[in-house]
């Protein structure tokens, strides 16, 4: 697969004659570009799963360093991923440059069209697996004094066990399992939620947090992975120590009981997200990177 992929990249580069090859994820895209023997400048962007692969595997770090050495510029979507990459390739220069988000789709309703935000319903969006931390969120819901409900968007092999856990914790009647939803279906859920809760650890960036902020929804998350790049504690959301169920429950109660129900956090979050994740902002940054590697060549 890799050899055929490398040949396909080389053929496409010869036919299209690009000024720059931009590989998203060092594996497999960056490795394919490396193996194609193309002389074009290579920009490699790391998104998260590729960095975790490089950390877990015995052989991957060697290939990772080769791709990094071949790259004219390296970017990562969060400071956390940039730090992880540097730890595997000391001396590597990594620019933190996130990907764009659809700021037109993910937006708050304005004026008379804006419906009331729920006063007592939290929202989780993500795969139902251990890394996403939904089991910890169920425990926090049980420990919270708010009596609030929880909408769970997403599917996964762990769903049956999680539903059983909710029953054991006595919160099953307060949890709605909505399954996977399209981006369009997510928007009204973001807009209606009291807050979006992200209890995952080692998140590459946390696009769910960005989407929620663009809808002016407060975000509660663990201070882990790339989430501190998105959520400024006390300004655009609330961050708690990773894995701390009591702190997570307290943060949920804090949003639930504050005078404006987190509206000020939501508005500040949207302003911050627009400044970093708008397509025109991201495009201008990458245009500068492309221009730089072309001129260096």
Please describe the structure with a list of short key phrases separated by commas or semicolons:
48% helix; Rossmann fold; alpha/beta; 14% strand; 10 strands; 13 helices; six-stranded parallel beta sheet; four-stranded parallel beta sheet; 2 domains; 297 residues
Could you explain how this protein is built, in words?
It is a single chain. The chain has 297 residues and is an alpha/beta fold. It folds into two domains: 118 residues, 3-Layer(aba) Sandwich (Rossmann fold); 166 residues, Glycogen Phosphorylase B (Rossmann fold). It contains 13 helices and ten strands. The strands form two sheets. A six-stranded parallel β-sheet has the order 7-6-5-8-9-10, sandwiched between helices. β9, α10 and β10 form a beta-alpha-beta unit. α1 crosses α2, α2 packs across α4 and α9 packs across α12. It is elongated and about 60 Å long. The chain starts with a helix and ends with a helix.
């Amino acid at each position: 697969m890799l050899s055929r992929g490398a040949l396909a990249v080389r053929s496409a580069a010869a036919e299209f004659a690009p000024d720059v090859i931009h590989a998203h994820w060092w594996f497999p895209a960056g490795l394919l570009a490396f193996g194609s023997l193309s002389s074009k400048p290579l920009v490699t962007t790391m998104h998260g799963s590729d960095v975790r692969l490089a950390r877990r595997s015995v052989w991957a770090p060697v290939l990772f360093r080769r791709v990094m050495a071949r790259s004219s510029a390296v970017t990562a979507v969060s400071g956390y991923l940039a730090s992880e990459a540097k730890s595997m390739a000391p001396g590597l220069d990594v620019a933190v440059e996130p990907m764009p988000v659809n700021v037109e789709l993910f937006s708050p309703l304005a004026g008379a069209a804006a419906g009331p935000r729920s006063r007592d319903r939290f929202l989780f969006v993500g795969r139902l697996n251990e890394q996403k931390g939904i089991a910890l969120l169920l425990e926090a819901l049980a420990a919270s004094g708010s009596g609030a409900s929880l909408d769970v968007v997403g599917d996964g092999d762990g769903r049956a066990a999680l539903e059983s856990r909710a029953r054991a914790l006595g919160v099953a009647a307060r949890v709605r399992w909505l399954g996977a939803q399209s981006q369009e279906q997510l928007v009204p859920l973001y807009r209606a939620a009291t807050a979006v809760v992200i209890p995952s650890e080692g998140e590459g960036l946390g696009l769910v947090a960005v989407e929620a902020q663009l809808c002016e929804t407060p975000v509660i998350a663990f201070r882990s992975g790339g989430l501190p790049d998105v959520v400024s504690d006390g300004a655009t959301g609330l961050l708690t120590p990773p894995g701390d169920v009591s702190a997570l429950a307290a943060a949920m109660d804090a949003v639930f009981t504050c005078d404006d129900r987190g509206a000020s956090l939501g508005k500040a979050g949207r302003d911050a997200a627009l400044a970093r994740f708008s397509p025109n902002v991201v495009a201008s940054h990458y245009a500068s990177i492309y221009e730089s590697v072309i001129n260096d060549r």
